[in-house]
Amino acid sequence: MDASDGTCRACHALAGHEARKSGHEHGHDRDHHEHEQEQEQEAAGPGESAGGVRRQLAMIVSAGALFITGLVTEQALHHSVYRLIEYPIFLSAYLLVGGKVVRSAVRNLVRGELFDETFLMTVATLGAILIHQLPEAVAVMLFYAVGELFQDAAVGRSRRAIRALLAIRPDVANLKIGDRVETVRPEDVEVGQVVLVRPGERVPLDGEVIQGFSFVDTSALTGEPTPRRVGPGEKVLAGMVNQGGTLDVRVERRSAESALSRILNLVENAAARKAPTEQFITRFARYYTPVVTLAALGVALVPPLVVPGATLATWVYRALVLLVISCPCALVISIPLGYFGGIGGASRHGILVKGANFLDALTSLHTVVFDKTGTLTKGVFRVTGISVRNGYSRDELLELAALAETNSAHPIAKSILEACGRPVRADLVRDYQEISGHGVRAFVDGKEIIAGNDRLMHSENIDHDSCDLEGTVVYVAVNRVFAGYIVISDEVKPDAAEAVAGLRRLGVRRAVMLTGDDETVAKAVAERTGMDAYFAELLPEEKVAKLEEIGSAMPGLDGQKLAYVGDGINDAPVIARADVGIAMGGLGRDAAIEAADVVIMDDMPSRLVMAVRIARSTRAVVVQNIALALGVKGTFILLGAIGVATMWEAVFADVGVALIAIVNSTRVLRRNFESRAPAPR
To answer: At CB < 8 A and 24+ separation, what contacts does 507-511 make?
Structure first.
């Protein structure tokens, strides 16, 4: 383990670093004992994990209370006969939050691993204790413990995300064996066997319907809201919900090979393949930690050997002051403070950013890929157009269609009934017939009404003048005479086109749409929103492959990021795979929200434009905080080395920088980002 890993871990923890990245990178940096503890926590149930967080929080609160007590009483005790009492107060707080750090530093030292953050923090804080700067020693450990708490909470959030997605996995399958039905685990069903899927149940395995008709909810896999009618010869996938009649399904894939299992694997593996966002502190710490440690050692040992009259005690004191000044606490805090301000500012505008690195990544977007349904569109079907023929009025056409569809449970039928706006007399309907994959036929007051798609009109030889129309179209004929058509579509969100245009004004080079919907609908939405490209009729794994293809085609420029915006469970794998995964939080599924790095809480695509503006303003504040921290520390390190700076200056160099950074970071919280003017890049 090198210095970069150590100090980076402390900074990332304070910044609420992404849990998934913590699991992969930081697990290697911890000692074996702590790694085993993490594995035990992961295996433990939610209650045990929550108990661990509560214990950790209790230690931090207790240490904080002791720290404040020590600060309040320090001056009074220091100049009295009770001055030794301040030691148990501060040392108790120090051990509560810093004991683990000291133990880790000792273990790493025994194993020959030097110059990590635990080593520098331990040496600096013990040095502070030796020169009677107890509050500084406790403050360093207290800040670090708070960062650890944030990191552990992020890890727990990642585990909950996977558990939420696993909730859609069917637990049982109804296996048909001769004339009886036996309940078994999906893993025990072989290819070629037949399973029974009752109304309301999830399809347990991929297969082909051999008996029965029904509507199945495919939204868990495709994200599209319209249930699909299935019958003999048609395919169904594990995770789909049977909404109507009983189905007999011949299994074509084992459980481990099903579409649902592939989605789960994609979510679990995609985070490991996500491109990391390397922050400044990571690169800086590779040199900072060993340099200041060796410099302090040189200050303590070299002058007494070469400077006439120099005493070892004087220069050891100066070396300890140097270590206190150079302790990374203020630097580690000053950077995430800017991001915290940006995250707070984003939350005020309904944008939840789950980590500082994602806010940073938003400043460098090259390509943004959008899901369609629920992201660019509202995800709710409505009648959006009515065209009449042969003397019928719009109201008459709607009422005739509503009468014909009154016995149907299809969402399209429901949207027509809703658009009709008044009750229809179902008792007038006779000889209702549902024509699979085409539409319906019914007799109302002796009139034959046919309502359905273009294929139905052609199969019934009904002359109609409109075939290639956008959206879902229901054609209506009365006594075999064309009466008109009704257009039903998922409405595009009012701010979708403005969101794409706003991103372009901010320098985003490309906007692409991926959808499981058909080509005609996808093309219409893409044109209406101003997309550069679109890809239709994609399953979840195909979306991931297409996203990777889009990413590989991006220019090989440093820092260029790819974002994906989606809302459904089916979007979770591709959200996790993108450099920045963005979920719509208002209507979005829980798994997509948990897998995402950024959540837009009000489902408005234009909020992404605001998020980019906030991110760029935050980056400016962070750069200012970095310059301040490095400038002040560099100055006081030099002053401390030559003996000008005392411990009071050391405290200012550490705590003072943090306070100034806090004030600077609040500018992001106060700023109004409603303006369309792009923030500086």
So the answer is: 507/365, 507/678, 507/681, 508/365, 508/366, 508/367, 508/368, 508/612, 509/366, 509/367, 510/366, 510/367, 510/368, 511/367, 511/368, 511/369, 511/370
Residues 157-167 have pLDDT tens digits of 544 544 554 55
Instruction: Show the tokens assigned to 323.
Output: 């270590």
Out of 217, 371, 571, 603, pick the active-site residue. Answer: 371
Asked about 179 being catalytic, the answer comes back as no
Does the structural domain 379-491 have CATH classification 3.40.1110.10? yes
Confidence at residue 264, expressed as pLDDT on a 0 to 100 scale = 58
Higher pLDDT: 259 or 95? It is 95
Which is nearest to 342 in space by CA: 357, 364, 332?
357
CATH number for domain 347-378+493-614, candidates 3.40.50.12500, 3.40.190.10, 3.40.1440.10, 3.40.50.1000: 3.40.50.1000
Query: What is residue 189's predicted lDDT score, i.e. its pLDDT?
Result: 92
- Left if phi > 0, otherwise alpha if psi is -120 to 50, otherwise beta: which for 62? alpha
**Could you read off the pLDDT of 166-224 as tens digits, one per residue?**
556 678 899 999 888 999 999 899 999 999 999 888 899 989 999 999 888 876 665 55
Question: Which residue's structure tokens are 């002040």?
Answer: 632
Between CA 583 and CA 590 the distance in angstroms is: 10
Site of tokens 């004929």: 477
Residue 271 has pLDDT above 60, yes or no: no
Adjacent-strand bridge partners of 351? 600
Domain ranges of the chain: 347-378+493-614, 379-491
